[in-house]
Write a structure and sequence with these properties.
By secondary structure, this protein is of the alpha/beta class. The protein contains four helices and seven strands. The strands form two sheets. The chain has a five-stranded parallel beta sheet with strand order 2-1-5-6-7, sandwiched between helices. The chain has a two-stranded antiparallel sheet with strand order 3-4. A hairpin with a 2-residue loop joins strand 3 and strand 4.
């Protein structure tokens, strides 16, 4: 079975932030993780990509930790990567973003992707 891949939009080098906890959670669960943050070179020892369009595909999952307004700015770029699923984490979702993602044909999951891989954010 191939290793699952995930791009974390809003990945952070701050270990207290959910964008960092998600990187660590997905790594612990065996995902190949691509952190995306235009202001970082590495996160948790992984190369960080300035935009999702620069992440080598294909992607099984995109997990978004961005404010909804920023999510709307990048959702077409996300759709161009053709991920199997897009997770809008708490605080990243809005009705407008969900609607636009679905219009673009994306499979949207509105939930915490850390819980989705079977871990608790509090444990990270």
């Amino acid at each position: 079975m191939a290793t699952k891949t995930v791009a974390i939009l809003g990945a952070s080098s701050n270990r207290d932030k959910f964008g960092n906890k998600s990187v660590r959670a997905h790594l612990q669960q065996g995902f190949k993780v691509f952190p995306v943050n235009p202001r970082a070179e590495t996160i948790e020892g992984l190369k960080c990509y300035p935009s999702i369009s620069e992440v080598p595909g294909p992607l099984d999952r995109v997990s978004i930790y961005l404010p909804p307004a920023i999510g709307l700015e990048v959702i077409e770029e996300v759709a161009a990567c053709k991920p199997n699923e897009v997770w809008l984490n708490p605080g990243a979702e809005s009705n407008e973003l969900i609607r636009r993602a679905e219009e673009l044909g994306l499979h949207v999951v509105v939930a915490c992707s850390i819980l989705g891989v079977g871990l608790s954010p509090a444990s990270l």
